[in-house]
Amino acid sequence: MFGEGESKVKKHGAGKRREWRKLHLAVDESTQEVVFAELTGEKTHDTHFIPELFDRKGLKRLLVDGVADSEKLYKMAFEQGIDLLTPPQRNGRIKKEPWMKQRNNRILEILGLGGDKIAKSIWGKLRGYSKRVTIESAIARWKKLFGQHLRSLSFETQRIEISVKAQILNDNEAVGGRNLVVSS
Q1: 4 against 116, higher pLDDT
Q2: Candidates 3.30.420, 3.30.450, 3.40.50, 3.40.960; CATH matching 6-175
């Protein structure tokens, strides 16, 4: 984002070190509308924004990659009646807490299918986890329209830029012939 190319900095130590930003998106799986867009620094954990998503009215299911396989997030989802669909870690252990029941069932399902990488893939298709392709599609549309760089220099204006781009992406989908409806 700032400074000269990464390779030049590594080789010569010249210029400022680049500051990376992470873009976090949430997309409605039925409409492909971006319903949440946030920008964070490179040292922020990938799941820090998930509790904010849990507070949204009408949320019934949240598909997140394996980084969200944590007891804290399962507990929050359990308390709010949300199905947190995330693959358990490869060596995941059965836990006795009631909020871990969903996760325990997923571990057993994957083990029942063979317990390997292929079993996890089959599990994903059977449980609907493969619908995460929706977010990959949204990111591809984002990069096609806007590229992968930000124009703004300060963090606050970058956050505003992300918000505006999310709205433009949603409006662009509507112009493309789709009716956007947020399901609740």
Answers
A1: 116
A2: 3.30.420
